[in-house]
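Notes to self after the call with IL:
- keep both proteins in one doc
- input above output, always
- annotate only the second one for now

Protein 1:
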Amino acid sequence: MYDPVGMFDRRAPRAAQPKTAVAPAADPPGVAPAPGEREVVWHGVFRGHSGYAKANREIVLRAANTLRVAAVHAIDPPDYDDYALQRVELHRRVAVSDSAPMVRFFGPWVERDDRYRVIFTMMETEFVHPTMVGIMNDSYDECWTPTRWNAETFKKSGLRIPVRVVPLGVNPHVYRPGPKGALPECELLTTAEAGRREVPGGFVFVYCFLPSFRKGLDVLLPAFEDAFGDDPDACLVLAVTHRPPSLRDPYLDDPCRDMRSRVYALTGSYTEREMAGIYRSCDAYVTASRGEGWNLPMCEAAACGLPVVAPRNSAHQELLSDETGFLFDTEGFAPWTNGQSISPWYENMAFSVLGARSRAHLTEQLVRVRADREERDRRASAFCDEVRSRLTWDRAAAHAVERILEIAR
């Protein structure tokens, strides 16, 4: 649980927050840039498997080809290291001038220096928490967000600073179509054989996520049972890779022996290339999320050629259409009663309602994807081409660098 006073009190320190404006530098602080050189202080989370961490690494390392970048860890989770992170670490020792603009790609934090400040963030709710909007209005000069949907959500929630859309992306050299392989061994969660470990076969749906109410597993599992309770050749793999041991979920940790459809849990830690291979080993991607600011796993699965089933809500309605995905309807909005246990910004905020009609429509779309090969191939190919050509980290970094060059003139 969070401390609602400490989290929202702008005077209260946060233990993980860096105490200096930039990271410790090899050069003297406040070093003057070379003639024509453009700089940026980039705050973000760089360590870990979260979407924010991946996006920060991917964009910063590309931006550094054009800009002098000083990287600052907004938070620094433990137990993660790879070559990309090691390269980012070099930028913690880079010094920039006092006039270099700052981009914070994470949740907002109260800023007090005189730099031009950009908050690059997103939200999954239909309205944005007023305290979050207040911090953004008071501490930043402009906002970047990945989708037009999010931009409009911030504006209607009272954001007064300018908003710019900077889409995120995938690495098309890693996430690409290819031969279908075999999945790693998974744990069967359902049927009388629950607990058995085996390699799933047949027509495989996959959903990659960290469990919480927002991700809609309570709707997806009944819909999948309705669709495939009598089809032993279809199965669902819940790729809860990189799940912390403390993050318990009854749908994943308690056997569902009454379900006839086959549902598996895939756990463990995998590299980017291994995750791409996992997607290529499946036949379709499904998400039942009640709200997304972007949905990076969905885009990476699509870049590998998988057809996508998703709710018609939040960022999904912008990224997908009925020509590129299999969308199912939602039923209005309602607050997530206990959302603040996950994030203070979820307190009393509305998410999409996935009721009986949504479940029935999701069931229909699951059956259609399984049965209609021609249509799923057509839509999958269209979305795959769009993601791999338009939604890439190269283009995301280009958008960011273009604006930073304008700011830093």
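Protein 2 (the one to annotate):
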Amino acid sequence: MSVRNIVEWPAQVLKQRCAEVETFDADLHTLVDDMRETMVTADGLGLAANQVGVSKRVFVMGIPEDEEGTKTEWFEVINPVITKKSGEQRFEEGCLSFPGVTEAVVRAETIELTYRDRDGNEVVRELDGIASVCAQHELDHLDGVTFLDRLSALKRRLALRAYTRERRARKDDERFEALGTIRR
């Protein structure tokens, strides 16, 4: 397993619908394993393949099963489809492709998710709460939609402005850090 680079907005791969997975082989297993390692290293709850630059309909999730976060339920989701939705919930979401930005997004409370596992077996799961939110967020990524696209135009503009400032500040910090390393 290896940690891959996380793609940040406005990368084009985040704006395109990902292709269906047709081959369930060792390359797919490596991708899924790398995505899981990348997500854990980045301290995320979910990660879509296009967030690591791969335009395939794959995402991983690690949802804490207890309040201490000592036990995690892992999901490796390939070619997902939401087959049922019910209820509504508002949840403060963040995204590894938009570091430093969080916004409240309205999503379905409960979903039924049909997908394939890494070996191509069909899985049908009912998800609620944070698992439902995370799955919907990651499935949006696979469709080329970000959580900011779920906001009103005004909120989206403000969030993008904050993200741009945050990104610029990080780039400046990286440049200053590199200069310090060069001068030593």
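Annotation: Strands lie at 46-48, 58-64, 72-86, 89-94, 102-107, 110-116, 122-128. The helical segments are 26-41, 129-142, 153-183.
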